[in-house]
Amino acid sequence: MKPRPGGEGLPDSRPRACFLVQAGFGTAFTYLTSGVFLSGLAILMGAGDILVSYLSVIVNICGVLILVFPAFLERFTSRKKMTIVLTILSRLATLFLVTIPVLFPARMQLYVFVPTVVAAFALQAQTTVVLNQWMLGFIDEKRSGRYISLRQTLTLTVTVVLSLAGGRFMDLMEGKYIGFAILFAAAALMGIFEVILLAGTPDGEPYQSSSRGCRFRDIAGLPLKNRCFTGFVAYIFIFYLLLTISDSYTMVYMMKYLALPYQIVTGLYMIISLPQIVLLSFWGRLSDRCGHEFTLKMSIWFFAGETLFMSFASAQNWYLFIPAAFLISSAANAGFVISVFNRRYELMPADNRIVYDNFYTAAIGLGSILGPMIGGAVKGLIDARTAAAGSAAAGPAAFTSIRILYLISTAGILLLQFIYFYFRRRQKTRESQKH
């Protein structure tokens, strides 16, 4: 077994338990300060539809920004100290958001809110990268699939509980500012517990990077020189781009065009979350037994099924096709989150890990930005052509354009899979001929 960067002689079970509990506190903090609650706070300050829509993918967008950090962070030898510092900074920046309506007049609030959100979530993205690399030093590669599945099961459980409790609480508070203040205060408590837990977790072996002292332009091209890792990143980048062409419109499709009540929409999303509590364990064992690459390929096939079923959903049959699509999505997400995590660290060299990890995170962010942009352009083109044919067709056109986006995603993902299989088979054939 290839040794992890933390070394083989490091303590084992206690650090793994610490990182497991930390995942619970970290998830609680993130959920209470992002997603629907962050959007609600923005709306309270007068944010428009465009800004609110971007808040739903703010984590991926800010992932692009951390591409500039490796030249600085590779100089530090302690992953523990770096993680704790970044955790504190990211938590403080995030908590500052809830003070904006109190500290600034209404006309200035959004001007302060937007850059603070960008800074906070860029710090969160970088914190996650560094924490993952610290954690890897204590994980047995042969059981990494099962450990990550356990970690994801905990985070998913926390998310489900908080989605039910938090939504109910904000309904009781009628969406008033005091409700957001209480949620962020609870998040602050979770952040304090998280930092205390991280402080009591053993550090890994001192990290030494060959690129310490190098300029940004000297190390930015390192991942591109690794053809295997770059190919993997390109594969995941294209997948995210193809998926988000349509998937980014799922919420607006259900709420606006299908006119489904909020309670039904939240209930439907539980179909994605709840089955994963069981499915994560299955995918984790499969990933350890058959390999992370195999599990990754299998999970991506399921996403094509999800988008295909969504393309059939209409006002007359949504109660059949949307639950079916979301159930397939649950299986897809459970397998993907485990395998993509392990596969990228399986391909990543031990040296310059922050450089490689930030490169991967930035690629995911770029794919998540370009996908909705392409989807919006295609949807706008279809809507414009249909509107030119007559106003009477405007209603059906809204359904048609979004359903076409789902078909584009389905066809794109299937084509990506066949191309990936073809090149991987050619690569394996060449390798076998060499031996």
Automatic annotation (TrEMBL):
GO terms for cellular component: plasma membrane. Keywords: Membrane, Transmembrane, Transmembrane helix, Transport. InterPro entries: MFS, MFS_dom, MFS_trans_sf, Sugar_transport-like. It is a multi-pass membrane protein. It is found in: Cell membrane. The chain crosses the membrane at residues 20-45, 51-72, 84-104, 110-132, 153-171, 177-199, 232-254, 260-282, 318-338, 359-382, 402-423. Residues 227-435 form the Major facilitator superfamily (MFS) profile domain. Pfam families: MFS_1. GO terms for molecular function: transmembrane transporter activity. This is MFS transporter. It comes from Hungatella effluvii.
